[in-house]
Amino acid sequence: MIIQSLRRIKAVAWKEFIQIRRDPRSLTMALGIPIFLLIIFGYGLSLDIDHVRTIVWNQDQSSKLTRDFLLNFKNSKYFKIVGYTDNYRDIEHKINSGKILLALVIPKNFSQYIESGNPAPLQLIADGSDANTATIAIGYVRAVVSKYNVELVVKSFAQAGLNPPKTVNARSRVWYNMGLTSTWFIVPGVIAMIIMIIAALVTSICIAKEWERGTMEQLISTPVKAPELIIGKFIPYFAIGFFDLMIGVLMGQFLFGVPFRGSYIVLIVLSSLFLTGALSQGILISVVARTQLMASQLASLTTLIPTLLLSGFIYPIFNMPKAVQALTYLVPAKYYIIILRDLFLKGTHIDVMWDEALFLFLFAFVMLGIAIKKFKKKVA
Asked: Is the dihedral angle over the CA atoms 109, 114, 116, 121 positive or is it negative?
């Protein structure tokens, strides 16, 4: 009985391989879209904010102190001085047209304030239409000003022949991503998103396609049982999904320079669980929908939106409202993204990821079980 069952599963799987090979559009979508998404997200999506476009209105041009102060912005990678002006109307026009994000207005008596020991005013005008970027840019300005103030204090004490006052010297040490490169954070999330979306989307139309083409009736009339049919259709797409995973890992390491510090065995095992759950979810959708259009829409709705918004892929979960945070526990991509980032950047061992591994196992077990139970060998 077991041998006969394996033969039927093999026959269904081989039939599905032939259908995939004869459908170049589906094969292109399954193999080409992952590469395209990795390139787009890897190069196009960046959380790093640098080269902030800045314009300067220097009303104290004759002062060397002012020019030295501006050098701190010119020599910083976070600012790009794109021009100078002499009026507010030009500043307003350039901000409204999106040509600049910041404007620095240095008053006429800027150097006199510094030389007299009084606080020197500095006006900063920022485009607040993008609140997050403006907040970060203002933080950069404050950091430059703070550094300049410390240098002034040290210089003034040295000129007076006195020892500078004791200050706090904070020395930061960043683990796992010393350069704070956002690509290292994004690429593992993109791999998880690709596997989730592609696996569910491709498999969601496989059984629905059989119903639309009328070939499902032929399969129902064969001795193939429902679990054998589901597993047989599952195997080819599992192979394609694993191929996409390999492409993602290799591109992440060699194209984007993301280090992989964990165990490849752990990656294979946990990725298999996640891939099984995602494929089973797609098969379940195709069983319920029975039309390719409805199946693709349901797959996009149940995978794309949760993975992008609720998995921690881009937006930190701890900043979300409590009710939304509760919903994230039901998003399987959340756990897989944690696993990928831990394996890539931290080299975490399996004993630290038991919670995420357990959820992926439950996700795969429940989805595959429901898909098999829901599929009935009946025409109506």
From this structure: positive
CA distance readout (Å), 334 to 153, 209, 216, 228, 356: 48, 30, 35, 30, 9
Domains of the chain: 14-45+181-374 (no CATH), 52-159 (3.40.1710.10)
The tens digit of pLDDT for each residue in 12-31 reads: 888 888 887 877 777 777 77
Confidence of residue 10 (pLDDT cuts 50, 70, 90): confident
Residue 56 token pair: 């300067």
pLDDT-derived band at 141 (thresholds 50, 70, 90) equals very high
Q: Token pair of 372, please?
A: 């098999």
Residues 6+ apart with CB under 8 A from 111: 60, 63, 64, 65, 66, 120
What digits encode the pLDDT tens for the residues 36-52? 888 888 887 777 788 89
Whole-angstrom distance, CA of residue 270 vs CA of residue 76: 43
Which residues are 53's β-sheet partners?
A: 80
Q: What is the DSSP secondary structure assignment for residue 317, as one 8-state letter?
A: G
Cα dihedral: 327, 246, 241, 238 (round 10): -120
- 310 near 328, Cβ under 8 Å? yes
What Cα–Cα distance (Å) separates residue 197 from each residue in 23, 117, 173, 204, 300?
Answer: 19, 61, 36, 10, 7
For the record, the structure tokens of 52 come out as: 């902030």
Instruction: Report helix, strand or coil for 179.
Output: coil
Least confident window among 34-38, 261-265, 335-339: 34-38
Alpha helices (H) along the chain: 2-22, 24-39, 64-74, 88-96, 110-116, 131-159, 182-204, 206-213, 216-220, 226-254, 264-289, 292-299, 305-309, 322-328, 332-341, 354-374
